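Handout, page 2. Input:
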Amino acid sequence: MTWKIVADSSCDLQEGLLCVPEVSFSIVPLKIRVGEREFVDDPSLDVAEMMRALADYQGPSSSACPSPEEWAAEFETADNTIAIAMTSALSGTYNSALVARDMVLEKHPEKKIHVIDTRSTGGHMVLLARKVNQLIAMGLSFEEVCEEADAYNQQTHLLFALASFDNLVKNGRMNKVVGLLASKLNMRAVGIASEKGELSLLHKTRGEARCITLLLEELASRKDLTGKPVVITHCQNPVGAKLLRLRIEEQWPGVEVTVLATHGLTSYYAQHQGLLIGF
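Output:
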């Protein structure tokens, strides 16, 4: 019995999941379009080059979700598949995966495929992929893995801190007036992925030190992180990510913090100096 964990590329893990035997892990890439150029969010993507192109280009840019055929190609390669998709509130990725599931099951009714709408992105998805891997390693049935994974998804959250808002405003993910005002005032925004999977702003402040303090306060108000895993992903901000990691480790003994760089899609929305915290 073979298992597969498939995530879209906003997971920020790419091919770095250490799978147990009989389990494989794959990423289905999104695409970022900047004028006439298309950047495919796979391990070969030069994120720095993509960010330079975005900064230089004055016209609209966009992102495109994976096609059902791309998801289906992954679903067909295992007996049991758990698919992890970014929030359906901001992307068609989840719905594309559902279409792919139905396509594959029509041809291969013996296969089992479960698609999870994380209502989130980034580090939240990394945590979920790791959890699914652990559940499979425990020898649980497909149905049990699905039930436990769904429950874990509800218990896991995503905080974010942004220093730039251009792409969110351009793509309708943030109110235009709010985004432009924040950019002009050199503000930092701290927010959370809401229960509906939308971006909800919690605080506006100035300076990274104050921003990190607000992130810690929000973390403390939502969960005791002692002995728990946390995933920080950053867009061209290793110093801020390291400072946040150290502050988290000081506050919660035994916390397991992983720091990763954002890949294409999450870099596109987080933008320069953005921080995402899955917990």
